[in-house]
Specification:
Alpha-Beta Plaits; two-stranded antiparallel ribbon; 14 helices; globular
């Protein structure tokens, strides 16, 4: 069994504040030598999103790493979909807009996979779906990594936490594409009007309108599905079973950063402002449930299992109240099981679903 430490969201004094909890607990989990490069991998949120991990939380982690003798840097990778964060310049710009600058954090921000998203290290994982995958260079070449994940829902994986962070956020564009390619969409020509909205949404030049119908170039398509979201007619959809296949690949890919860093990783799940959608969304909906708290572990599978279990114990609120009757409430939000990618990661040796939860 793996150990998971947990502080609930209730704060009764200054000692219970999130920064102070981090400063009290994190030093017990770190094993870094003086002068080592420590990557603090987190999602700074897209521009317009206001429920991502707060700057004060990341700053507290930076301070702990410095006190332990490490040389911290903040890092995040580029994305597959059309966004300011599609290239390295945009990643830094959006991070700064959201409060993550060298001046405020006390550590530099480095784009994990470079200016074009192609700077990485290929790592063998030996999975049934994925044999090897490319890990972003700044993650792969650090001496130690702290993965800070916002525990929340996700439309493709049901839940986004540490495993998803490893199997997607720590990869280059090539790596992300290998996970997502099974989601290459299909076009219903009967519904398609040839409006071109999908063409505008695709950053890969993979869609063209021919004879007033959208056609997808399978060689170029990355499978990130922004075209489907852009289609006003609902003419573009994911293939049947594609989300399940993507999750299996996601779980297998999570082993790559673990393997290349020889397990020199500590995980923090920040489980506040628990939204149904990802921090990649350019907006933030009302939280699904009340805050859970903050979790710490050396095992990404265990910390995600504990996080999901704690979320499922809460009463879901607002438009999500209909899922309260379900045993696995998160599955009811997007109608996709959050356990598929976690079980896939466990099967390949990324961690254990059996955990001991210690409340602090």
């Amino acid at each position: 069994m793996s150990d998971v430490m947990y502080k609930d969201a209730h704060e009764h004094s200054e000692r219970d504040s999130q920064p102070n909890v981090i400063k009290r607990v994190l030093p017990e989990l770190l094993d870094i030598r003086r002068g080592e490069l420590v990557a603090i991998k987190f999602h700074p949120g897209d521009y317009g999103n206001t429920t991502h991990v707060r700057p004060v939380v990341i700053r507290a982690i930076v301070d702990v790493v410095k006190e332990e003798g490490g040389e911290p840097f903040l890092t995040e990778s580029t994305v597959l979909y059309k966004s300011k964060r599609f290239d390295g310049r945009g990643v830094v710009e959006v991070a700064a807009m959201n409060g993550f600058t060298h001046a405020s954090m006390g550590a530099p921000f480095i784009v994990a996979d470079g200016i074009r998203g192609d700077d990485g290290v290929v790592v063998e994982v030996g999975g049934k779906e994925i044999d090897e995958v490319e890990v972003a260079s700044a993650c792969a070449k650090a001496d130690y990594m702290i993965v800070v994940s916002h525990g929340k829902g996700h439309p493709a994986s049901g839940f986004g936490g540490a495993v998803k962070h490893l199997g997607m956020g720590c990869l280059t564009k090539s790596g992300k594409r290998k996970v997502h390619v099974v989601c290459q969409p299909v076009v219903d020509v009967e519904k398609c009007t040839g409006c071109g909205k999908c063409v505008e949404a695709c950053p890969w030049d993979a869609i063209h309108v021919v004879n007033q119908k959208a056609e997808i170039d399978r060689e170029k398509c990355a499978g990130e599905m922004s075209c489907a979201s852009a289609c006003p007619e609902g003419a573009i959809s994911e293939p049947a079973g594609s989300r399940e296949k993507m999750q299996m690949r996601l779980g297998e890919a999570s082993l790559a950063p673990i393997k290349v860093l020889n397990k020199n990783i500590t995980y923090i799940n920040w489980v506040y402002q628990i939204t149904a959608g990802c921090d990649c969304f350019k907006f933030s909906n009302t939280p699904m449930t009340e805050d859970v708290g903050i979790l710490f572990s050396h095992d990404p599978v265990a910390i995600d299992c504990a996080t999901i279990d704690l979320i499922n114990e809460k009463m879901f609120l607002h438009e999500y109240q209909n899922v309260n009757k379900l045993r696995d409430k998160l599955e009811g939000v997007w109608e996709v099981s959050p356990w598929i990618h976690i079980e896939s990661a466990e099967k390949l040796g990324a961690g254990s679903s059996k955990y001991v939860l210690t409340k602090i």
